[in-house]
Specification:
Length: 404
Amino acid sequence: MRVAVPPLTPELEERLRLTPFAQLGLALTLVRSVIDEGYTVPSPVQVEVIPRALEGRDVLACAQTGTGKTAAFVLPLLQRMTLAGDLGTSSGRIRTLVLAPTRELAAQIAERVDVYGRHLRIRHTMIYGGVSQRGQENALAGLPDLVVATPGRLLDLVQQRKIDLGGVEYFVLDEADRMLDMGFVRDVRKIVALLPTKRQTLFFSATMAPAVETLARTMLVDPARVSIAPAVTTAPLVEQSVVFVQQPDKRAFLEGVLRDPTVERALVFTRTKRGANRLAGELELAGILSAAIHGNKTQNARDRALEGFRRGTTRVLVATDVAARGIDVDGVSLVVNFDLPNVAESYVHRIGRTGRAGATGRAISFCARDERPLLQDIERLIRRRLPATQSQERPNERTARGSL
Ligand code: AMP
């Protein structure tokens, strides 16, 4: 239901006009939404992307979750859709399509559309797999202007002729690198082939590997390029450390860490799905309320786990990298790398789950003997050495950890 909003008074208008958000070219209605959210200054990705997107340019942005990238594409597109008219009266076609790799990320984007678009008349809906299609068909019958979708279910609906993408004017591909990692590249290409060639495309990826560049080239026209420093340099509030602990001792060590009552909500990363399940079960047996979240779980089970974590009934969420991507829960006070990631960049994503929105957070990495090369990779990437705390054994720095 729409809540009546007080009209803009001249004083409020003046105040909004002076904000740095207005100076990016955003309409005051949208500025009002972000100020209501408590934002005071636009983040770097917003400063770079918003003016270019408002001009109608394609954008190729390298930015991670946590940088404010969602607002960087949602705000200008809401403005362009509104200026181009038809909102509220329903144009009868989907004008904006946002593709996201996971249901969790899609849900977050849709929630942001709600928040930023709260003073606009915009109809939007979400399309994702793992649940019955009926509710989504009904939502599509309401003729949404904007759809946030995961690729598989969207294609199913296209094939069933339940959705027509022929009227899309604005297209966002979010977390393109993750789309590739998850094997969605063919689906993405098929979807892009269904869109009108005359459209604006905003392409976001946390990394710019060659495969990502290749994909970008097939769908962007003369894009403005934007590159934002990885979250590790923008999250100075995360206190990072490493603990040298042998694999069989990791669980007992973790229990000790989690018994600290100042740990409100902890996110624990394992390398495998089985490992995540087993560890969550063991923690539960030890009396620590935990749940596992990974790609083998049904959507409902994942939703339940996340909801419990948000509400605080589950204190510890054990996750694999793919499942954790897009989890946006405030108040994660601790991230534990139970297993070090095989890919150093994942470390940055993982620790970006804590220390959000100006809060302080901690990240502890457990490093067994055979994981030392992985630790070296991480330290090389973040260009700093992680301080070792409470280690069972302190390996000789030079021989065990090598030089950076
Ligand atoms: P994202 O990178 O889009 O996942 O955003 C990460 C978090 O930053 C979200 O919780 C947003 O609400 C928040 N956020 C986005 N833009 C700003 C801003 N300009 N100032 C403060 N917080 C922001």
